[in-house]
Amino acid sequence: MVFKKMLSAFGVGGPSVDTVLTNPNTRPGLTLDGQVNLVGGDAEAAIEQVVIGLVTRVEVEGHDTEYAGTMEFHRMAVSGALVLAPKQQLSIPFQLPVPWETPITDVYGQRLHGMTMGLRTELAIARAVDKSDLDQVAVHPLPVHERILEAFQRLGFRFKHADLERGHIRGVQQTLPFYQEIEFFASPQYASTIREVELTFVTSQRGVEVILECDKRGGFLSAGHDAFGRYQVSHADVDRVDWAQVVDGWLRETTSRYGSLRSQYGASHGHGRGHGMGGMVAGAALGVAGGMIAGEMIEDAFEGDFGDFGGDE
Question: pTM to 2 decimals?
Fold first, then answer.
């Protein structure tokens, strides 16, 4: 018995955890439903708590360095302290709210190249090795996101890559410590003025703040530079406007009226990169529903698990 307890302390013959999602597909502002299934090990185990958290891969830019790290950005305890008897089976149901600013990972059923998302389950065991589980999650766009992405497609832009940048955009109210950049190659009709466009959504319960960063080509007497535009839309506008016309207007306005304004770089976090967006249009930031916990960089064994579902190839 003493030997079994010693093995259990090292994670041998200890309890196991397996999380089952009712549906791994969700959208910002909705929920992820499921249950955490626990099975007792060879000996009685004192569980301190069971926690679930959303994790993703974030690009971090520091002093002359850039690297990708795994970040947990939203977590919730699904159980407090409990005692799990040997071989006991226990299921704990949960409903995890998905933050409004959660980045989009899938469009038209396809994973966006560069995006990863998972739900991690932690089983904290007193005086023993923590057990954990990782499940793939797919975050689909809200209707207003879909309309804007469709508009870029209709205008001939080609999707290039998507990633998450650690930091805050100056002047934009964010609850998460990163923002998503969805990159497009310019379509032929814009190719004379724009090389690429980076699209960022900062979503709240009321609407979406849309940030455009256009890689503008240089002219005969001017160097190329980035031009920024910032626009606000309501969820209620989704079926009221011609989005291709709206996006075309945004692009033309961004590259002409604000084309001479350069970006200012200044991260809100010491180790992150945040576009200062000093050249963006000023505007009242949308209110954001609910405060999320600050993100925490996690460097652990879960880094490798993402390779199975959508890491960079």
Answer: 0.78
